[in-house]
Amino acid sequence: NAGVMQNPRHLVRRRGQEARLRCSPMKGHSHVYWYRQLPEEGLKFMVYLQKENIIDESGMPKERFSAEFPKEGPSILRIQQVVRGDSAAYFCASSPNLDSKETQYFGPGTRLLVL
Amino acid sequence: GQQLNQSPQSMFIQEGEDVSMNCTSSSIFNTWLWYKQEPGEGPVLLIALYKAGELTSNGRLTAQFGITRKDSFLNISASIPSDVGIYFCAGRKTSYDKVIFGPGTSLSVIP
Question: What's phi and psi for A54, nearest 5 deg?
Answer without folding.
Answer: -95, 120
